[in-house]
Amino acid sequence: MEPSEKINIGLLGYGTVGSNVYSLLEEQAAEIKKATGASISINKILVRDPSLPRAGAPPELFTGNFEDILNDAAISIVVELIGGTEPAFDFVTAALEHGKAVVTANKQLLSRQGFYLFRLAQDKKTQISFEASVAGAIPVIKVLRESMVAAGLKSIYGIVNGTTNFILTEMSRTGARYHDALARAQEWGYAEADPSEDINGKDAAAKMAILASIAFHTNVGLDDVACTGIENVSRLDIAYARDLGLAVKLLGVARLYQDRINVRVYPALLKQDHPLASVSGAYNAVFLKGAAIDEIMLSGPGAGGMETASAVVSDIVSVVARRESPGFLEYPVAYRGLEFFPDEEVVSTFYLRLEVEDEPGVLAAIASAFGKHGVSIQSVIQKGRGARAELVMVFHPVKEARFAAAIEEAGRLEVIKSTPRPIRVEGNHGGGE
Amino acid sequence: MEPSEKINIGLLGYGTVGSNVYSLLEEQAAEIKKATGASISINKILVRDPSLPRAGAPPELFTGNFEDILNDAAISIVVELIGGTEPAFDFVTAALEHGKAVVTANKQLLSRQGFYLFRLAQDKKTQISFEASVAGAIPVIKVLRESMVAAGLKSIYGIVNGTTNFILTEMSRTGARYHDALARAQEWGYAEADPSEDINGKDAAAKMAILASIAFHTNVGLDDVACTGIENVSRLDIAYARDLGLAVKLLGVARLYQDRINVRVYPALLKQDHPLASVSGAYNAVFLKGAAIDEIMLSGPGAGGMETASAVVSDIVSVVARRESPGFLEYPVAYRGLEFFPDEEVVSTFYLRLEVEDEPGVLAAIASAFGKHGVSIQSVIQKGRGARAELVMVFHPVKEARFAAAIEEAGRLEVIKSTPRPIRVEGNHGGGE
Q1: CB contact B259 to A (< 8 Å)
Q2: CATH class for domain A5-137+307-333?
Q3: Which residue in B27, B149, B293 is closest to A35 by CB distance?
Q4: Residues with Cβ within 8 Å of residue A163, at least 6 apart in sequence
Q5: CATH for the A346-425 domain, from 3.40.50.720, 3.30.56.10, 3.30.70.260, 3.30.230.20
Q6: What pLDDT, in 10s, does the model give residues B379-420?
């Protein structure tokens, strides 16, 4: 390794994260040189309109043409921060095909084309690093890739979307309705103007697809992850859950069931003393459980501009440090090709709130509908009285297919006045853990 | 990299951790080969008496002579699990001098000779890895070495001793006295027969010395870490703290004060909603705070035989994976040679419980003694009545030297009937964070 080696970077995109990456690299230059023996600098920056004035980087670095970066043989690392799948996919593919290493924060891209890109990087004997794509400041990808080989990982679950966690925390803290909590999240900058990908669970699903692929060495794409968002979580559910000693969180869950895998995103109830229950606001937290480890939790702020930039710079440093030995790069594609474990077969514990007519025989009718499908009730509490009463029920663990059939049957009863929206209870049953 | 490359390991010590490392390496062989392209096997095991029958490894692997391992040119990695400083230091030094890589779980050794050994490894262009020496299953060393370059780390603090955390959790949960909680910890296997190194904070101090050295690229030895143990934490303190909304934890704290560093271990009070407050039982948790990151927490089970073995195997895999590029190895010794920030200069918030005569003028006398040294009282609550009353006081943040002088002055008052044992309150003041 030459002590004065120079590494040139092409940056794609210069928004909040891009400009923070630029300034972090400048500030940390001496430190990084000590760590890697190389001087790192950004030589070209791709933006839509290079003529616009921008803070930070000098104007001569900007270009509107990706070919300028691709064909610059001196540039050995391409940092992709434009997001979305197109043209990011084309740019990343071209960079890897030219043998350049890629650092990206693009979860949309990786959750759809990650497997293809990992293989391509390996074929071209180069690297693709993407810590910043999941869970902001928490180095969960690095830990999964490099520290968990011997752990015999069985499940990963956690809170991987800061926006929804902020909203659920607000609802729980202040008793606010969903729409008011969402408005507050937008006002405070914790939710985008269009927050639908956060709210409907798709953002969390993309991250879980990436985490599950890396953790279990298999190909999990966005479409393989069923997701339910938080749109239908009511403040009543949050209040009743609290009475039961439970907190509502949007969880991403990836579990091995022997040799099959199941990856999903859904709102879930956790005991108040579960460590994830106290992860509040826009924080993220990921739990890892394995045969040789009880459980490890990594938590920290979700993706803000600075956290993401810091993760990108760490990835750049890692790429540079292992530039002569791809080493772990083969790891994520030591492909096991796992089959999926069907959702219907998963054994879950459910909570259910039902609006019902307050008249004699209602509970008997409902219990009988569930009983017919072998679903047994663990506890039931009646809330309120009058024309509309509410039943808050928790069931014994049951195969999800059975529970779905029972819900359908019960939903046809005339005494039930609302669409039944069950919520899973997590953290205290066997399942695949 | 040859696809069928074979890596031979010499193991020093075959206790619980050693035998678990042996079996984990056997179980994970296929996985590790995929990850690193190499077959890893343990070829020789150093034990005191090789003639004794042992489970797991075949008898012909055992030797009583370290030279057998040292002079075996086929052995490229030495895994040191004998603990203590002698003969571990001689063995590790000799292995590095012979160009062999070393993996060790030995915190005593590293907290005393780590800096020397890191340098030696670098001089010999080989590696020393030691994830298992700190915080069991949590990969905090790896995260510090590889992910935090751009984070501008300012402080690390956390719970790094499982035994004392188990005892404090028991005292808090059941109201038990210290000695009863300790007896329970021993009964359940969470404390050794001789737990003094845990109880007096020395074990935590050794781990903090290692963490601070790696995090801040400087040389912090065990003797540079002042420590106070939990022997004098009373169940009254725990009960009164709870009334104040605080929990007692044994904390290791390493903080930068501009260009100087301060590393200490002491019992501290944390707000109940601080994430560390809910780390219970024998768990460990480490907080990282930096300029570019708000805070990251890593938590997991403390060092049990299986967690430590898993961390050792991960280190072996890392060493093998980067065998052709020492890369990050230079990192911990990019020496900054920081000076120490004196304990007396640190600004802290103190809690203090005083047994006093219940007579008029007592509080005035005490307040005046503190006031004379510029220490002002934030809150005071009188507990109990009668001949012996108790005052529970919390002070405004103050330089520790001043507080020490005030305590000394107050301690001379005849109305005070117990040795004053202040406890720091952490997590809500500025200081060096």
Answers
A1: no
A2: alpha beta
A3: B149
A4: A185, A190, A191, A192, A195, A198, A199, A203, A282, A302
A5: 3.30.70.260
A6: 998 887 666 788 999 999 999 999 999 999 998 998 898 888
Most confident of A277-286, A339-348, B214-223: A339-348
Under 8 Å between Cβ of B43 and B72 = yes
Any alpha helices (H) in B322-393, and if so which ranges?
A: 362-372
What's the rounded Cα separation, in Å, for the pair A79 and A17? 11
Instruction: Count Cα neighbours of B120 within 13 Å in the Cβ-side half-sphere.
Output: 21
Q: Do B294 and A301 touch (CB under 8 A)?
A: yes
Q: What is the pLDDT of residue A328?
A: 42
ipTM, 2 decimals?
Answer: 0.75
The DSSP call for residue B341 is: P
Residue extents of the structural domains in chain B: 5-136+307-331, 140-302, 347-425
Give the C-alpha distances (Å, rounded to integers) separating B395 from A115, B348, B353, B380: 57, 9, 11, 9
A104 vs A389, higher pLDDT: A104
State residue B324's pLDDT score: 63
Residues of B in contact with A143 (CB under 8 A): 139, 142-143
Which residues in chain A are contacts of B24 at CB distance < 8 A?
150, 292
Convert the pLDDT of each residue in A302-318 to its tens digit.
877 788 888 899 889 88
d(CA A249, CA A280): 9
Contact (CB<8Å) A28/B150: yes
Give the CATH H-level superfamily of domain A140-302: Dihydrodipicolinate Reductase; domain 2 (3.30.360.10)
Contact B313 A35 (CB under 8 A): no
Could you tell me if residue A398 is left (phi over 0), alpha (psi between -120 and 50 degrees) or otherwise beta?
beta
> What's the CA gap between A284 and A307, in Å, rounded?
12
Distance, C-alpha A51 to centroid of its chain: 36
Mean per-residue pLDDT of chain A: 88
pLDDT of B69-121, one tens digit each?
999 999 999 999 999 999 999 999 999 999 999 999 999 999 999 989 988 98
Q: What is the pLDDT of residues B155-198, one digit of tens each?
A: 999 999 999 999 999 999 999 999 999 999 999 888 888 899 99
Closest chain B C-alpha to A308 CA, distance in angstroms: 9
Chain A residues with CB under 8 Å of B279 CB are 275
Q: Which two tokens stand for residue B233?
A: 């934490």
Task: For domain B5-136+307-331, give the CATH superfamily.
Answer: NAD(P)-binding Rossmann-like Domain (3.40.50.720)
Known catalytic residues of A?
Answer: 207
Q: Which residue of B has its CA nearest to A24?
A: B150
From the candidates B207, B249, B372, B417, give the one annotated as an active-site residue: B207
What DSSP string describes B305-326?
HHHHHHHHHHHHHHHHHTTT--
Beta strands per DSSP E along A68-127:
75-80, 101-104
pTM of the model: 0.83
B354 in contact with chain A, both atoms CB, cutoff 8 A:
no
Asked whether residue B1 carries a pLDDT value surpassing 50, the answer given is no
Of A32, A152, A290, the CB nearest to B149: A32
pLDDT of residue A311: 87
